[in-house]
Design a protein that fits this description.
By secondary structure, the chain is an alpha/beta fold. It is built from 16 helices and 19 strands. Helix 8 packs antiparallel against helix 9 and helix 13 runs parallel beside helix 14. The C terminus is likely disordered.
Length: 498
Amino acid sequence: MTYQFLAGFWWGGASSAPQSEGAAAEGGKGKTIWDHWYELEPERFYQKVGPNDTDDFFHRYEEDVELMCKAGFNSFRTSLSWARLIPDGDGEVNQEGVQFYRRMISCLREHGIRPVLNLYHFDMPLALQQQGGWENRHTVDAFVRYASFCFDTFGDLAEDWLTFNEPIVPVEGGYLYGFHYPAVCDMKRAVQVGYHTMLASAGAIAQGRAKHPEFRFGIVLNLTPSYPRDAADPGDAEASRIADLLFNRSFLTPSVRGCWPEGLGEILGRYGWLPERAAGEKEILEKGTIDFLGVNYYQPRRVQKKQTPCSAPKLPEDLFSYYQWEDAEMNTSRGWEIYPKGVYDIAVMLRDEYGNLPWYISENGIGIMDEEQFADETGMILDDYRIRFIRRHLTWLAQAMQEGCACFGYHIWTFLDNWSWCNAFKNRYGLVRLDKEHGNARIPKRSFAWFAQTAATNSIELEKGEMARYERGSLSQCEKTMGDNGIRNVCALRTFHL
């Protein structure tokens, strides 16, 4: 069965400045927290590969944009580097950075690819971090000034703007679990960072909308459905509600409705985690709601009640426990569950609880270690597992759209294998292989041609049996072979890695 998408559906991919550009010391760019952390602790980075050793998009964007055309892209999301444009985050503008982005964005447009520009993707200018980063209210105002500058400077080239990519991740990584700089663990500070981030998003949108009413403003959230172990168990249901509030609705509700979600304040207040707030900030949140939403989806969250309640919680996980679904299908390269139905559940939630606002899948993809083992004699990666992963998710997206959900696009993460924070090139996600051993050569994978054909026809051949898989309520067995090329053990049942 073939599903035909609506005319104008966005087919494309996503990346970010810090993960693709490289050239950290070129063109007047200021240091970010990643440049600084790598200087301090290079051993924290996989194989000691740092943020200057990426795809070299800074020099090779024209080549890459031509490849995007061949992949069938009609849209592409990337971020602008705050530190490349304003090296200290809140001062003089770097004109070399301005000219680079104008050339790059113009190149996209000349090739018929719609630029979707994101203002912040985890790369805080070091000068601002040294003043407290998102803990400091000054950073909120600096971000609004930066955003206003970008709207004015690039507004003739782009009309689709995103304030943040996955704002929960710097909160988790930098202030709870230690996988982003400054790598501290303090729930109250984490909440303050999250609150200021949402305030910055709303302030930027409110100011941008006042000056540029023709623009569309949004945010990208990694929505991770929180499934209770037993929905009929009040304790498990409450655990799911708390996880959903803390990790999803804490950013979703302010973005869409301009207010905190019901119940969040009570949880934060109960444990002394409420952020400091100032007069007038409530009105800023109310004015800065989004026009559209980007949804990054990779895996679900499965939770249950704590067997032994914690009397003095310090982390979200002190309020619930994780569990592994007995029928989970796993990508063992990442330790992430593969659950395509999550796309459908997100879509229905947005339709029924958030006014069916326009949204698109801004990231979805599968990262595989040692992917070179699947190369043929020409160097092409035979990634049938990636094709099937995408098709399974699009099957559920098609079902949701048939039921009236307002999705208008699908962006793969990512177009070209890119550098990924502390994991460097450990897991590969691209439609195009980055051959590090041969001068960063770009070699399209098998999924590249499949994606191009899908985009060209604006349709998807639905994955047979995908819907029935979950209608039965469980998986009868794990598919240890993905695709037709003999790739085994990419997915393994009941295997879980933290």
